[in-house]
């Protein structure tokens, strides 16, 4: 459990570094120190997000490390990767200062937390993960969170113009995250454990919905195309 969790964190940091090196502002791409600093800032964001996860229903220490809950591990890995994608998306493109990157990171991460909270209120997915230890629910949560991260991260990507323009583009490009969340709530009604179906098959009720979420997100990203100023 610990090694899988640590590998996911390491992969997240590598993803941030690669995104900054490949698509960050020109001065960042030209300076390895800048890439290192912003990657370190991304690591701090992941640490903060991990502290917030218990408030949303899943805890790294209690559910993953102590209880060795595989469903919780899948959900946590998806949540961390989602935060990573959002941070990377908010850090690519030209901008005048680091504050712009941090504003995008806060905007995207807060929106992800709201979507997760809505899914929990409407679908009780964290209860299925922590109490029922349902692996299918953990995989669904992972797929939904990564898909939401792709939508929100892409909505934040691009050159910085102003706060109002960033918020406008975020809403204009990221609105499909709300219908995705609504659809996930409906799926939870049928896919979560019940008296008639106490042990849902993880392939049919976990992997397939997760792939559906990711396919829908990928389709929207393909529709949007390259972000403004993409090298």
Structure description:
There is one protein chain. The chain is mostly helical. The protein has one domain (2-224). The protein is built from eleven helices and no strands. Helix 3 (32-56) packs across helix 5, helix 8 (135-156) crosses helix 9 and helix 8 packs parallel to helix 11 (202-224). The model has no long low-confidence stretch (mean pLDDT 93).
What's a concise summary of this model?
This protein is mostly helical.
Can you count the helices?
Answer: 11
Largest sheet: none
H/E series: HHHHHHHHHHH
| Measured distance between first and last alpha carbons | 38 Å
Query: What structural category do the secondary elements indicate?
Result: mainly alpha
Q: How many domains make up the coordinates?
A: 1
The count of strands amounts to 0
**Share of β-strand residues:** under 5%
Characteristics:
globular; 11 helices; mainly alpha; 231 residues; single chain
Architecture blueprint of SSEs:
Elements (H helix, E strand, L loop, with lengths): L1 H22 L2 H4 L2 H25 L3 H7 L3 H22 L6 H26 L1 H6 L4 H22 L6 H12 L2 H15 L10 H23 L7
Helix pairs in contact: 1-3, 1-5, 3-5, 5-6, 5-8, 6-8, 6-10, 8-9, 8-10, 8-11, 10-11
């Amino acid at each position: 459990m610990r090694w899988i969790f640590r590998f996911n964190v390491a992969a997240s940091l590598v993803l941030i570094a690669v995104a900054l090196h490949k698509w960050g502002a020109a001065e960042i791409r030209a300076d390895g120190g800048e890439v290192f600093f912003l990657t370190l800032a991304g690591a701090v964001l992941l640490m903060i997000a991990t502290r917030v996860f218990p408030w949303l229903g899943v805890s790294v220490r209690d559910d993953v490390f102590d209880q060795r809950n595989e469903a919780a591990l899948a959900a946590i890995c998806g949540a961390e990767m989602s935060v990573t994608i959002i941070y990377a998306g908010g850090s690519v493109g030209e901008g005048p200062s680091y504050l712009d990157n941090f504003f995008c990171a806060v905007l995207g991460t807060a929106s992800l937390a709201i979507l997760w909270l809505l899914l929990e209120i409407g679908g009780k997915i964290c209860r299925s993960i922590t109490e029922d230890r349902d692996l299918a629910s953990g995989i669904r949560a992972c797929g939904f969170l990564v898909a939401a991260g792709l939508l929100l991260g892409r909505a934040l990507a691009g050159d910085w113009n102003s706060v109002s323009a960033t918020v406008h583009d975020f809403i204009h490009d990221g609105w499909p995250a709300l219908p995705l969340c609504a659809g996930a709530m409906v799926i939870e009604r049928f896919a979560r454990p019940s008296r008639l179906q106490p042990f849902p098959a993880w392939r049919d009720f976990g992997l397939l919905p997760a792939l559906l979420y990711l396919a829908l997100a990928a389709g929207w990203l393909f529709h949007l195309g390259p972000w403004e100023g993409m090298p």
